[in-house]
Amino acid sequence: MRYTLKQIAVFDAIAECGSVSLAADKLALTQSATSMSLSQLEKVMGRPLFERQGKRMSLTHWGLWLRPRAKRLLQDARQIEAGFFAQQSLSGELSVCASQTPAEHLLPELVSRLDQTFPEVQVKVSVKSSHSVLEDVLSYRCDIGIIEGRCDDHRLRQEVWCNDHLTIVAGADHPYTQLPFVDFKQLEQARWVLRESGSGTRAVFESAIHPYLQQLDVWREYDFVPVLTRLVMNGNYLSCLPYLEVKPLIEKGVLAELNVPELMMNRTLSFIWRNDMNDYPLVDCVIKEGLDMMKGRSVLT
């Protein structure tokens, strides 16, 4: 075998960090030693693994092919080392990127379970829109994603974690709260504040309402649900938000759930990961812990 684990580790670190200098810092190597290891690996492989754009490094086609295989190789090496030191649990670093609803309501419990079951696994978490989660998984910036709604990209695998649904809400003093039901003419006349385009919430809402209404008066768009709930509580707006997010405010009486009988806005919360990450132990343990966590439970209630 003409390449070394050190060279593979250097390649993986540069792919993650986007630069030789940052990778060198991460690996506690000098910049010259890091550059030399990469150069030796590219010479052995006979292919360029990165395109150099100033100080930034982006993966070539061959680099993209190598990345998941390099990650698996490094993970296997860690497991071999752990086994000889009588460490029975998985170890290593895993990056999870989640959209807002699962990040706030489900991810903390999942990370806690992982900490208890796999104490040697370091879980890195980031929170973004569902669209950005997809991009991060595809571009290798994270190992596994958690999204709201469907994923139709053939490069990704998807495992439904649990169910959720959206609801239309208004402030307690909004005139629509006095109505037994709200029709689409009234929805069209209302002012809306919504999640940003690219979020799973926005995609499900638009898909559900599009057959009935082509245009809404969208007054504001924001990334964060607390901003939207405050606007709805204090202004004459409507919004469409995950029931998980607004349930406590509805129970307190500061928000009201509107009855729109024709709108069915059920959705799924799912794990996603790249097809080339099959049989990757850390991804498998996250999915298993997540599914075990939700046995006998539903987020719809």
TrEMBL record:
Keywords: DNA-binding, Transcription, Transcription regulation. Residues 1-60 form the HTH lysR-type domain. The keyword Transcription regulation applies. GO terms for molecular function: DNA-binding transcription factor activity; transcription cis-regulatory region binding. InterPro entries: LysR_HTH_N, LysR_subst-bd, WH-like_DNA-bd_sf, WH_DNA-bd_sf. Belongs to the LysR transcriptional regulatory family. This is HTH-type transcriptional regulator CysL. It comes from Vibrio aerogenes CECT 7868.
